[in-house]
Amino acid sequence: MSFIKLRIVDNGDSGLTVFYDEPISEQLTRKIVGIEEHIRKFMGEHLLDVIPSYQSITIIFSLLKLSKIEASKKLQQVLRKPIEQTDSLPTQHYKLLEIPVCYCSTCGPDLFYLSKHCQLSEEQVVELHTRKEYLVHMLGFLPGFLYLGDLNPALFCPRKSEPRIRQPKGSVGIGGSQTGIYPIDSPGGWQIIGRTPTSLFNPNKEQPTLASPLDRIKFVAITHSKFLELEFDKKQAAKNS
Question: What does CATH list as the number for 6-87?
Answer without folding.
Answer: 3.30.1360.40
